[in-house]
Amino acid sequence: MRKRLTPYPVIAFLGALLAAACASIGSPDGGPYDFTPPKIVKCEPANMSVNNKDKRITLSFDEFILLENASEKVVVSPPQKEMPEIRTSGKKIHITLHDTLQKNTTYTVDFADAIVDNNEKNPMGNFTYSFSTGPDIDTMEVAGTLLESENLEPIKGMLVGLYSDLSDTAFATRPFARVSRTDSRGKFSIKGVAPGKYRIYGLQDMDGNFCFSQKAEKIAFDTLVIEPSCAPDTRQDTTWIDSTHIDTIKTIHFTHFYPDNLILRAFTEEIHDLHLLKTERPVPDMFTLYFTASSDTLPVLKGLNFEGTEDMILERSLHNDTLTYWITDTLVSNLDTLRFSLTYLDTDTLGQLVPRTDTLDLISKISRSRQKEERQKKIEAWEDQQKKLKRRQKEKYVAKPNPHLREDFTYKAQPGGSISPLENIKFTFAEPIASVDSAALHFYQYDPKDSTWNDAPFLFLPVENDMRSYTLYAEWHPGEKYKFEADSNAVKSILGKLSAAIKREISATPEEEFGALFIRLILKDTAAVVQLMDKGDKPVRSVKAVSNRADFFYLKPGEYYLRLFIDRNGDGKWTTGDYAAGRQAEEVFYFPKPLVVRARWEVEQDWDVRGIPLNKQKPEAITKQKPDAENNARQRNMERERERNRNR
Q: How many CB atoms lie within 10 A of CB 165?
């Protein structure tokens, strides 16, 4: 008869171990971090299977997995009218296709790097599941990069697809035959392609129909006819011991698919549909109408609770898409609500411009009484300030006129501070200008020898297509001092307001504080505009190239970048494309590295504009769309592992 062991000694032993563990203070060691991504162990139906009729797919892995950003990364091709159901369950991914399967067609489910393990988020890498409904499966691939036309930014999450129908109408009438989606670097790879001829397009699909159906959709197109091909190739595969030490380098044989270096340039067309976007009346004296597009025909206003629309002064934007009406009749501007009919051209459902009449009620955001109250508060606050100042200074106090006793209209002057010899000063007033008294304007240049201010030639001219702005032109000599003065009442607004006195001293920066940059272009095109960009990728200065040269004088020291566009229409600005007209957006190029300008230095730089591919031109420092960190979980875990080893 075998004697049963009592459990009490075992319990006592475990208790002793627990007490010892509690007495030791420190971080628990969870073992080495998992660097291994998930692996496929089974596919139902099998990956690359043929004659498949099953719309339910199950992928099994060797560990628990997750799908990261599935809606952005996972793409089913051919495109599905009804969204497929893709879900995870433990170690499995379940896919259900709701559309009817097409005959003799290769289907692909491209997961990109969406599959990660549950614990350390190690990405599986680019994985695509494929099957065919016929006896053969298509395995060709087409790859490349999609960039923003205007600034060569990589575009993330945009569709790129193929059409076997080579007509220009296919893109606007039918969904893609094969489709992919760009990653964070703008790269795409269209898989499961059959041998044949194709045209390629990019689409920011706003309505989910996989074709270009809205003007607001960003698109890319190319007239190039693609014929996919493949050939055997080799590459070097490096195995690392850690982040700095190489284990082995192996030669890997693989099938290279072509073309793999396509570059598409995406753009958004100008929206020509004309609609009244919004109206606003921020103050009693004016109101603004905003339209979605430009128009050569101005709207017609008819007052319903007032008369005198013909006395209003119209301030128009350059393209007539923003119209501001200034009310000169105080009986009208004092009305709390303006009611009027507005007849204007509007784009109908057929895309035709037709007259439309709306009845509008505009209420001022700030009433006339509130304006008076706020002005009175300013007057009283200024008077209190002057009384306190008088008590502190006593005999030294000098009375000054109250600036709030009259309704002066304010202005802004740009640039502020010192200026370069190539700049001029722009004065922008709060209201459109009715007149300027040139006799009340004065301009002086300082003579350091005699310590006197002497009259100097100048021009004070209105800015074209801008009713509120004037520019002060003068010959600015480096290191010299100037002074501009305007007497009180020199500038009068269309509402009768008068300007206060203007006194502004201006210093021209000394020549020794500037540098210069001279660019020699290696380029066949002659209609080039070269732009100097700052670190925020914003243009600082633009120069039209002459004899393939672009010279930038009087530059402040700093780091600059270069951008160039081919000005095909000669308007001096970048112009977008038009698909119906078959016109691409104007080409843009970047110099691939920054240029440093130092004071008293002249930098000469050759630029082979087409010397390197577009997708490698824009410097990373000014590229806003950064690539997702590849293997970020692996890198994070390696750093944790090294830190833990150092602490042992």
A: 14
